Amino acid sequence: MHSPARRRFALLTLLLGCMPALPGAAEPPPAARVVADRVLQCSVGIGCTKDEFITHTGTGVVISPDGHILTATSTVPAGAEKIRVMFPGFVTREATIVAVDDALAVSLIKVDARDLPFLPLARELPDVGSTAYTAGDVENALRANGRVSFSRGIVSGIYTVPKNPEAHYTGVAIETTAAINPGSDGGPLINEQGQLSGVITLGILPLRWQGTAVPTKVLLERFAPFTSGVVKPDFQPLAGLPARAPADHPLRVVADDFATYLVGIDVERKFKPEILPRVSWEEYRNSITDWDKLPKDQHGRKFAEYLNFARAMEVNQLLRRPAGPFSGVVISPDGFVLTSLFNVGADNALVSKKTGSPRSFTVGESIEKLIAEPEGGWDRKDNAVTKITVVLPDGSRHEATLRARHEPLGIALVKIEAADLPWLDLAGAAVSPQLGDAVGIIGYVPGAKPGYTLNSGIISAPSRLRGFLFQTDALLNYGNSGGPAFDRAGNFLGLAAAPIEPDTLQGQLIPPPQLMRWTRAPNSGVGMVSRGDRIRDAIEGLKAGKSVQRIPGPLLGVEPDQSKTFTENVVLGGIAPGTPAEKAGLKRGDVIVEFNGVELRSWPDLQDRISGCKPGESVQLKIQRRGGGPRLVIRGREVETLDDLQKLKKELKPGETFEGVLSTDDTRDITVVLGESR
Is the pLDDT at 11 greater than 60, yes or no? Predict the structure, then answer.
């Protein structure tokens, strides 16, 4: 059982051990400045060519005074030519390839130089939760400013990454929250001692979608220039940096405690997770018939097509629910487990009417064909959960049943048959979030040490969605959805909620203009967490099997047209019987153009407007209804059916006169009195 008191004592010990020095002695420069001063001298921009039309650019890091530079194969691939290296201060030198290892996704190049500033290498992996730094020639920062960009974060995970199109390395990688952007690949990941601990790669884990680096520990063991002794790196930590231990990181100390209750959640659905065909340029080129016989001008055109294809696949893969495991927390010794409703809740897929399955996407198809409907059209089908498995810290797997769900909180409670499990006591650990407090979120990672990922940030807003959630800038993704959020004192703040909004995709590709429909994507820095104090208050009802469907509040009573979800129109796909929408005359197919005079451009816009109102409040909707033909408008009321006429008659007094207008306009104003959802 979790006890926050022990964590508070540990934190007090840390604070007492970190009392400021007595005045009189000169203050040492901050560690980040010491590291930055050295790293900015050693990080370089690299450009090269391969074939007649392909240019590669990225970052590198000097590792010896005589000009050896480590970088990634995505920056300097095998066979690269005309390699030019830009050093700080706008100094440019030519370089040659020393070694390229595609399996490690790393290249070593050399310039003719002496007495260059360089970085020492780390022999060991850094600790999860320790400070990390990155540097990169992002948006040609060297050319514009004479030095690369620099960022600080933490080591957020150490785990195995799979092969990626532009990074063939498969093995242990270091994940960081420090900035990694286009142009960073090949750049340095630096540990707290100012040593190079990894080379930034384009490899990612689909559960996480965070930046990673190939560890120098792996390179020292497997990269030929190091194993053969051709390059003899330095390992001495930078001077002026304090030695630190894992216990000096308060969130890491608490994370170790919460990891006792952390479990994996494997979920099987009717349709398997969709993996799009993401391939390298070489693989794409090999799929082109008679490539060598094509005219040279078509080579460039085909490469441009590949870039469009690769970008479309990458961003659309980000919007797809990956295979697990996801995260959950044991909250009772007999096997109750909390997780995010996103992990085990409703989902759907667009399936081909012809095959009954989500369509497949093929390398070489044009973007126009990829985003078009499949032959025969498609239907939206439920992608139901067929099996839930909980993976305990010891690796044992236990089939689970869904006991209850709480939709306003975005959580689900599942149950496994077990006894004497370590468990988190919600009654003793849950507290209310406070604005600005530090927050850590851990996620389950199988087969890794320490067995979890750790993302940190602050509480950006303590109350969202009427107090059921809070907002944080800690990075949330598929992997840590359902993981616990906590503060430095060891209090339980909540459970990481859905990492994406409105929802994931399957069976459809979205063109770039429609990607703005997603208000939140994984690792956006706008993460939602189900509040621990509200979970604590609701947990007994959930254990009893009582699900909570909706938040009490204003009700309109409409559903979206799912086939139009990703357009800029708010199209109604259904009207609930007996609701204010039905009473006001709204119909399926209506497009809501304005709400109280404010233009609507998406379904979330409508939801936000409704949530800002109160039950019983009258609102004005401007709708568009096509194909209805001319209609009478009498006393501001639409008269299209006998039922409309009967309602009008009830409002008129004997002998009363009135005027009407025959209207052909397809837009109309409708007044709706909002109801209350319960």
Answer: no
Mean pLDDT of 67-89: 95
- Distance between CA atoms of 602 and 370, rounded to whole angstroms? 24
Look-up of token digits 């208050």: 537
Residue with tokens 């052909």: 664
Nearest alpha carbon to residue 348 among 250, 284, 270, 401: 270
**Closest-CA residue to 508 (of 348, 328, 291):** 348
Ramachandran quadrant class, 274 (left: phi over 0; alpha: psi -120 to 50; beta: rest)? beta
Closest of 518, 535, 524, 414 to residue 473, by C-alpha:
524
The residue-averaged pLDDT of 375-400 equals 93
CB proximity list for 352: less than 8 A, separation 6 or greater: 358, 359, 374, 375, 376, 377, 378, 507
- Contacts with 147 (C-beta within 8 Å, 6 or more apart), sequence order: 40, 43, 88, 89, 141
- Maximum CA pair distance of the chain? 106
Structure tokens given for 580? 């204010």
Cα 52 to Cα 250: distance, rounded to the nearest angstrom: 53
pLDDT digits (tens, 9 = 90+) for 99-158: 999 999 999 999 999 999 999 999 999 999 999 999 999 999 999 999 999 999 999 999
The residues near 197 (Cβ < 8 Å, ≥ 6 apart) are 122, 125, 126, 132, 174, 189, 190, 191, 213, 215, 216, 217
**CB neighbours (10 Å) of residue 241?**
18
**pLDDT value, residue 466:** 79
Token pair for residue 670? 């409708």
pLDDT at 25: 42
Query: Quick check: helix, strand or coil at residue 291?
Result: helix
Please report the pLDDT score of residue 104 as a whole number.
96
- Give 596 or 248, the one with higher predicted confidence: 596
Contact between 444 and 474 under an 8 Å Cβ cutoff? The reply is: no
- For the entire predicted model, the pTM comes to 0.81
Q: Do residues 47 and 59 make contact, with C-beta atoms less than 8 angstroms apart?
A: no
Yes or no: say if 608 and 594 are a contact pair by the CB < 8 Å rule.
no
- What's the count of helices (H) and strands (E) in the chain, helices before strands? 15, 37
* Cβ-based neighbour number of residue 285 at 10 Å: 15
523: left (phi over 0), alpha (psi -120 to 50) or beta: left
Lowest mean pLDDT segment, chosen from 8-12, 152-156, 476-480, 520-524: 8-12
Cβ contacts of residue 651 below 8 Å, gap of 6+?
635
What the block records as the tokens of 117 is 């500033």
Domains detected in the chain: 32-247 (2.40.10.120), 553-677 (2.30.42.10)
Dist CA 431 CA 446 (whole Å) = 29
Answer for the pair 66, 113: CB distance below 8 angstroms, yes or no. yes
Q: Are 641 and 649 in contact (CB under 8 A)?
A: no
The pLDDT score that the predictor gives to residue 629 is: 60
Among 215, 251, 243, CA closest to 486: 251
- CB neighbours (10 Å) of residue 289? 7
